[in-house]
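WARN no homologs supplied; continuing
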Amino acid sequence: MAKKKYYVVWVGRQTGIFETWEDCNEQIFGYPKAVYKSFKTKELAEQAFNSSSKEFIGKDIFETELTEDQLKKIDDPIKNSNSVDGSWNTSTGIVEYQGVHTETGKVLFKAGPFEDGTNNIVEFLAIVHALAYCKQKNIKLPIYSDSRNAIGWVRDKEARTNHEKSDKNVKLFELIDRAIKWLNENTYENEILKWETKAWGENPADFGRK
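OK structure emitted
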């Protein structure tokens, strides 16, 4: 079954949001310099129609694959929060991580690059770094991560990695030990939340290398 689409017509015989291609086509076919675009959700279509077409035509706009009912269950992310993410180059093994303010994108901290790591390791270190950063500055904002594994490691105060130690990743494993020690010796009030990529798009702390 074809997925539902919403068609925005900015310039045509009649402008508006149309729920079928047939209705949309009636407004644009043969109309000089018609401007239109399809969207996967009604919310984004409404946002687009109430904005300039230049903000959407030819732009890489994230559109969720989830249904409207699924989106309602997830809700929106908390804007006044911090987000963390890690980057792992699968060909070189180079890893790094960073933390940003979710709404503004301001970089709060960044670490790396480190050699011979994994994505789970830096996702874990990023969360603990964020917790330590927030505790030091008395910040009680929620922290978002898109890694369920890393969130679980932090909760259990254990880095369950099968990655082997090597001469190249000594620094990384030292950081893991320090992170576990910090978790065992400190408490924190920050809520650690899952960033719902399928609903919201890429984590604001993403390095943009996918």
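The CA atoms of residues 95 and 172 lie 9 Å apart.
OK
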